[in-house]
Amino acid sequence: MKKFNLLIFIFYIFNVNIFSQNFIVNNYSPGEGLTFTNDNGAKFTMRGYIQPYFDLKVYSDTIGDDFWTRKISKPQFRVRMRRVRVRMFGNTANEKIHFRLQTELTGSPEVEGSIGTMLMDAFVSYKATKYFKITFGQRAPQTDHRSMFMLSNTLQFTERSRLASFAVIREFGLFLEHRIKVAPQKYIRPYLIVSSGDGFMSLARNYGGLKYGGRIDFVPFGLFTRMGQFRQADIVRENSPKLVFGGYYSYNDGISSRRGRIGGDIVFLNSDQEESLPDYQKYGVDFLFKYKGFSMLGEYLNTKANIPSDIAYYIRNNGTLSTTVTEGEFNYPLNKMMLGSAYNIQMGYIFKNLFSIDARYTHFKPDEYSFLNNGTFYSRPNYYTLGFTQYLDNNYSLKIQGSITYVDLAEGANSNVATGDPSAPWYQTQSSGHEMIYRLITTFSF
Predict the structure, then answer these.
(1) Which residues contact 82 (CB under 8 A, 6 or more apart)?
(2) How do residues 404-433 score in pLDDT, each as one tens digit?
(3) Which of 113, 76, 160, 72 is nearest to 434 (CA)?
(4) Contacts of 409 (CB under 8 A, 6+ apart)
(5) Model pTM score
(6) What is the CATH number assigned to the segment(s) 2-445?
(7) What are the extents of the domains in the chain?
(8) Cα–Cα dist 1/202, whole Å
(9) H helix count then E strand count, the chain
């Protein structure tokens, strides 16, 4: 809470300094927000977007020898406001100090299986040089896979890939980033991060030690147009091939959740009832390529955990102690964590009329002991998605997207469909089958 109050104080002082001067409002363009500037170069922008959303899901059961003869469950559907984001950002007159504050007004989580939060970004940056920046606060870390630090309103599909199951999404800490020109049209972008390791919950109590990580990206064919390195589809139709590829690594010294996203969610104790937390490592490689409307994104990651040998208890959600942990055995704590490897490959093409066709394949390979084997939420090794998007403007401000996803169910996967009839085959745990997910989302940016 003290960290949150400190950030609010910084934003208050910053805005008092800005609005104590004479500002003018720039011309408005959809998706670009309202920008206020003054004569000495200080700037403040307010921008946002809303995303109404619909999805429908059906499951097959194990009856029948092939896809076409399997019985299909009663469809499940939901309608909701997927995101309502408001972002404020700006800089001082000399452009040395920058800030961003972004809120999620629905409180919905960024990805399935996470908690909702209203505070997304809250940070202040100092530009020590033109291309070297130091940031303090809460933001998306570059030690997640590449698509996770791309804005949600610029996604190529209706939802992020299932690789987001490994993502931290937001972290509170110190972030260093640089851009180095090593030759004509060739750049290196290094990033270093030291964070609390508790994700969204770092504004509350901290558990364990710190998290350390870094990324290095290579841009061999020149910079992308209009920040295209941080957008998925090639809506600007790059005139020459553009490529960025890189790798990342992070080490969380004492993790208290499945992947470091929600601090305090899973806490282990030793026989003296003192915290004894696993260490968690994540590493991966990824790339993004764009050329004349075509785009391709590839991502691979792997996670590992080091389990203390003295774990004896697990704190349940209600605060009581579980004694199902056997001291010296690692299977129980390993089954609580996101452990294994996965990759995602997607590509698409935007026609000149701003209509796009996109395809994606995501694959999971869980460790023998991992939460990825959980029958209700995971045990789904393969995801195949076909997507369609009609952009109504060339800056992501207005678009309509639809997608169809086919999901393989591994042995033990649970359809989790509450039909009210326990005798129905699709009500029970399945040993084979599939699920189909149909999604529709619209984006209105202002």
Answers:
(1) 51, 52, 53, 106, 108, 441
(2) 999 988 877 776 554 455 555 545 555 567
(3) 72
(4) 59, 60, 379, 380, 415, 430, 432, 433, 434, 435
(5) 0.88
(6) 2.40.160.10
(7) 2-445
(8) 9
(9) 2, 22
